[in-house]
Design goal:
This protein has 328 residues and is an alpha/beta fold. It has two domains: 29-162 and 235-326, Alpha/Beta hydrolase fold, catalytic domain (Rossmann fold), CATH 3.40.50.1820; 168-233. It has helices spanning 6-12, 65-71, 97-111, 125-135, 153-161, 169-184, 207-218, 220-242, 267-285, 303-306, 308-321, and strands spanning 29-32, 38-44, 50-54, 76-80, 117-122, 140-146, 253-258, 291-296. Strands 1-2-4-3-5-6-7-8 form an eight-stranded mixed β-sheet, sandwiched between helices. Helix 3 (97-111) packs across helix 4. The radius of gyration is 19 Å and the shape is globular.
């Protein structure tokens, strides 16, 4: 039984973008890594702690618009483009969680974006910020995980719903088609399914920003990075987390579960899926003595779009617990 996954919902959803003077038209803060590659960061606001926002599959530095704008009134808030996305150079394959967390660690040092940090990870991005927190346990003072993916969740879904229930096969197949078209120089395309590989300009979008987004989607390196992230998700990335620390001690931790993640699933499977998803998130929250698991009503998997307030409140809650909340 193959079910629609949060990762697929994320890839099909339209991430929010500023309509005018869109910063995606140009890089912002390019941090040079030890191997010479550049990692593009975008930061706003001031104050401690620094809040790091990490998106899920196919996400870039611009997917947190409402959340970032609100948090920047109190904290320094940074997003970035992972290797091969946006304005960041591609990295050596595979693009597993360890490689992503290592890039983030080194990129922050190169860009002189200091801690302490509150890390916020959405979907697959939650796996990456958890691995980053393992690299910087003294600097990460709190975590907010937004409808997070869980290591080896494919096994748990398969046990309940059959082999392939948590597979990313359809999503990977689409990315492979886009990669082949990009390598052949046949993007953008107007016929399905390749017409979805390159985003069309939105009404009112800055022309330079639209051109930058199209150029990104036409690069083979973009699709190679995305495919590698998918290929390692339930393998290497999950293994890296399973081999790492299983307790977060008393680290302030909030795990947010969207109540609508499986709203489009077949009716008979909808509630069992939701129960399993929330159960996985409760297990994760219990890894900290200060962990909280919370279901967010009226939210799809894209919580930063339809319930940004829940994420903002969770960051404030974690910061307060860490005794670092700045007076408003």
């Amino acid at each position: 039984m193959r079910l629609l996954l949060p990762l697929l919902l994320l890839a099909l959803a339209a991430a929010p973008r500023p309509a005018a003077a869109d910063p995606s038209a140009r890089p912002d803060l390019a941090a040079r890594l030890p191997d010479g590659r550049k990692l593009n960061f975008r930061c706003a606001g001031a104050g401690a702690p620094t809040v790091l926002l990490e998106g899920g599959y196919a996400a870039d530095s611009l997917g947190w618009g409402k959340v970032k704008a609100a948090l920047a009134k109190t904290y320094r808030v940074c997003t970035y483009d992972r290797a091969g996305a946006g304005f960041s150079d591609p990295g050596r394959l595979p693009r597993d969680g360890a490689a992503i967390a290592r890039d983030l660690d080194r990129g922050l040092a190169a860009a002189r974006i200091g801690g302490p940090y509150i890390v916020v990870g959405h979907s697959a991005g939650a796996l990456y910020v958890r691995l980053f927190s393992n690299r910087r346990p003294q600097d990460v003072v709190g975590m907010v995980l937004v409808d997070p993916s869980i290591e080896h969740q494919d096994r748990r879904f398969a046990a309940m719903f059959g082999e392939g229930a948590a597979g990313v096969g359809p999503l990977r197949a689409r990315a492979a088609q886009c990669l082949a078209a990009a390598e052949a120089g046949s993007l953008p395309a107007t016929e399905p399914p390749l017409d979805r590989c390159v985003p069309a300009a939105r009404p009112g979008q800055d022309p330079a920003a639209a051109a930058a987004r199209r150029a990104e989607a036409m690069r083979p390196s973009t699709w190679r990075a995305r495919i590698s992230e998918l290929d390692t998700l339930w393998g290497a990335t999950s293994n890296q987390l399973s081999a790492a620390r299983q307790s977060y001690g008393d680290l302030p931790l909030v795990v947010l579960t969207a109540d609508g993640t499986y709203a489009a699933a077949p009716e008979a499977a909808r509630q069992p899926l939701a129960n399993l998803w929330w159960g996985l998130h409760r297990e994760l929250a219990r890894r900290s003595t200060r962990g909280v698991s919370r279901v967010v009503k009226g939210s799809s998997h894209m919580m930063m779009t339809d319930r940004p307030d829940a994420i903002i409140d969770a960051v404030d809650e974690v910061a307060s617990q860490a005794n670092m909340l700045k007076r408003r």
